[in-house]
């Protein structure tokens, strides 16, 4: 009896421990929001994140991070019409390293506005001030049924898949022309939508593991410090451009989404995620809130069950 009770308690503790894996250790300047990660041909890690000019941080070991500067140290006046200010905050970049160049998509908007645009920058080194402005990728204005922020790019067998969106009718899909990094045509289709919580779904990330494509999104409220309720959700599909369902079979276009990571312990409001295949397997890169601001979180993801689990 006593043994049974102890075993039950131990098994409960193990269950809790599995659900509350602490993030991997990170140190140095890790005060990021909406991180995206690239690794160059020398194995150096780069994280780009939300900031005026887009912040650049680097690391040789993925643990210790140094702030390097910004993509646009002299400002980005072409974004002013969308941010409504000079040198405004630029949001939620997406990085793709081609093997010789960094491509970084980033958004310009203001809170709650559909006057939004996604722009593209390119650099061979990733260093502050080394980027070329490749201009506008896509934009929205009042009256569109989606919002052109939170770019996500997933290159698969030479096809460049592009997901974007925040609130309104949710996450949309386009294809990019690989030679330009810009939409191949005007086709825009739906990947995910919530009608609950004011339609709070954004920050999408497409990833492939085994036979499935996975669509990760951030639900609920970002940007409220430790009152943020952001949490990371997922669905999967055999097709990159739609048909995503959650673990219960609910379509992501009908509000489905299986929880991957929510608030736990000192990790409040995890979201703004990115998924990357590193030498030690898939990693989830995200931000969460502490009483001192937002900070970088990195976790291993285990897909062995067919669904990503923070490990
Ligand atoms: C993480 O850092 C803490 C505090 O410095 C240390 O006790 C712990 O062993 C570290 N964990 C790993 C996995 O390196
Ligand atoms: C848009 O371009 C993609 C990629 O070339 C193609 O698969 C898709 O059929 C095109 N859509 C339309 C509506 O032309
Ligand atoms: C992934 O999880 C499974 C099931 O819990 C476990 O057997 C396996 O060792 C894990 N893989 C890694 C790489 O940790």
From TrEMBL:
<dbReference type="GO" id="GO:0031222">
    <property type="term" value="P:arabinan catabolic process"/>
</dbReference>
<feature type="signal peptide">
    <location>
        <begin position="1"/>
        <end position="19"/>
    </location>
</feature>
<keyword id="KW-0326">Glycosidase</keyword>
<comment type="pathway">
    <text>Glycan metabolism; L-arabinan degradation.</text>
</comment>
<dbReference type="InterPro" id="IPR016840">
    <property type="entry name" value="Glyco_hydro_43_endo_a_Ara-ase"/>
</dbReference>
<dbReference type="InterPro" id="IPR050727">
    <property type="entry name" value="GH43_arabinanases"/>
</dbReference>
<keyword id="KW-0732">Signal</keyword>
<feature type="site" description="Important for catalytic activity, responsible for pKa modulation of the active site Glu and correct orientation of both the proton donor and substrate">
    <location>
        <position position="150"/>
    </location>
</feature>
<feature type="active site" description="Proton acceptor">
    <location>
        <position position="34"/>
    </location>
</feature>
<comment type="similarity">
    <text>Belongs to the glycosyl hydrolase 43 family.</text>
</comment>
<dbReference type="InterPro" id="IPR023296">
    <property type="entry name" value="Glyco_hydro_beta-prop_sf"/>
</dbReference>
<dbReference type="InterPro" id="IPR006710">
    <property type="entry name" value="Glyco_hydro_43"/>
</dbReference>
<keyword id="KW-0378">Hydrolase</keyword>
<dbReference type="Pfam" id="PF04616">
    <property type="entry name" value="Glyco_hydro_43"/>
</dbReference>
<feature type="active site" description="Proton donor">
    <location>
        <position position="202"/>
    </location>
</feature>
<dbReference type="GO" id="GO:0046558">
    <property type="term" value="F:arabinan endo-1,5-alpha-L-arabinosidase activity"/>
</dbReference>
<protein>
    <recommendedName>
        <fullName>arabinan endo-1,5-alpha-L-arabinosidase</fullName>
        <ecNumber>3.2.1.99</ecNumber>
    </recommendedName>
</protein>
């Amino acid at each position: 009896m006593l043994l049974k009770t102890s075993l039950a308690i131990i098994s409960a503790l193990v269950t809790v421990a599995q659900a509350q894996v602490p993030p991997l250790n990170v140190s140095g300047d890790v005060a990021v929001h909406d991180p995206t990660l690239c690794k160059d041909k020398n194995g150096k890690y780069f994280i780009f994140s939300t900031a005026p000019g887009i912040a650049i941080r680097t690391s040789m070991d993925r643990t210790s991070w140094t702030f390097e500067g910004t993509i646009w140290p002299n400002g980005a006046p072409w974004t002013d019409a969308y941010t409504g200010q000079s040198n405004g905050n630029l949001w939620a970049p997406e990085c793709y390293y081609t093997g010789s160049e960094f491509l970084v998509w980033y958004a310009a908007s203001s809170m709650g506005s559909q006057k939004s645009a996604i722009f593209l920058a390119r650099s061979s080194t990733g260093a502050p001030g080394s980027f070329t402005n490749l201009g506008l990728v896509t934009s929205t204005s009042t009256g569109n049924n989606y919002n052109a922020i939170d770019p996500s790019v997933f290159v698969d067998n030479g096809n460049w898949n592009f997901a974007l969106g925040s609130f309104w009718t949710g996450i949309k899909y386009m294809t990019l022309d690989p030679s330009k990094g810009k939409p191949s045509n005007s086709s825009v289709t739906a990947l995910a939508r919530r009608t609950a919580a004011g339609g709070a779904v954004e920050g999408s990330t497409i990833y492939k593991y085994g036979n499935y494509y996975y669509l990760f999104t951030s639900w609920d409220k970002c940007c409220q410090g430790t009152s943020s309720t952001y949490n990371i959700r997922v669905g999967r599909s055999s097709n990159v451009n739609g048909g995503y369902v959650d673990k219960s079979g609910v379509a992501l276009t009908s509000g489905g989404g299986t929880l991957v990571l929510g608030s736990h312990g000192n990790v409040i409001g995890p979201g703004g995620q990115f998924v990357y295949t590193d030498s030690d397997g898939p990693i989830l890169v995200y931000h969460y809130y502490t009483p001192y601001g937002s900070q970088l979180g990195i976790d291993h993801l285990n897909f062995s069950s067919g669904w990503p689990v923070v490990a």
